[in-house]
Specification:
By secondary structure, this protein is α/β, with parallel strands linked by helices. It folds into three domains: 73 residues, 3-Layer(aba) Sandwich (Rossmann fold); 117 residues, 2-Layer Sandwich (Nucleotidyltransferase, domain 5); 45 residues, no CATH class. It is 38% helix and 20% strand. The strands form two sheets. It has a six-stranded mixed sheet, sandwiched between helices. A four-stranded parallel sheet has the order 2-1-3-4, covered by helices on one side. Helix 7 runs antiparallel to helix 8. The longest helix is centred in the middle third of the chain and has 15 residues.
Length: 252
Amino acid sequence: MRVAVITEDARKYYLIVKTLKAYGIGFYSLRPGEKIPFDVEVALVDEASWGKVDFPAKIIVEDESFIDELLAFLEGRERFKQVFIAIDPGERPGVSVVADNRVLEVYRMKDPRDVSIVLELLEKYPEARIKIGHGAKRQRTLTLKALGRELGYDFRVILVNEARTTPKVGNTEAPGVQDIVASINIGLRGGREIAIRDLLEVREPTKREIEDIKRRSRELSGNITISTKLAREVAIGNMTLEEAIEKQRRKK
């Protein structure tokens, strides 16, 4: 099954070809008026070429969002009405793509600030909206800051109450499975839409929170207690606990 790319617009051609290659979709490059091979299922054309292409199945290309309509055609399905990229915050956040209550893809982020997979999914599903669980506040803050830097702090996400989204899993891979299943459950729930900047209001951590972070630094490192200043940076989401421990280690 192949696609015909029919355009005389160099910029549109580059956009189409780059996207098709990223999805592993075979294609023919043609000019308006050229014979379309027998195995072509659909033609991708720009607005200027639309009237010059005589073919029963055509998709007009305005921007990279054409891929959603093309995939819908090739898979013989209707376009999804709602697509959500759901994030379960944590040390290694779970990520899922839920479309019309159907799970399409699942991932785990490398760390709270590595939002590259979320950005790739936004390119793949241009109409998708981001849902994020309300728990794991410190890690959630790191993720939201990373998204804000890439998408703008006025970008709106859906904050979801993630209570009882994490199941019990009885095997050695439980943490990874739990993170992914929790993200799926977040994707299936409703929530409150809010701008990223409004979720990043930083309050001063309590003395108890600071001491708890310092205690966890000893548990995680074995013998290093981070300073109160570093514990505060962890508490307000400016760095991870691991980064604070490493910084304290270098000071020593």
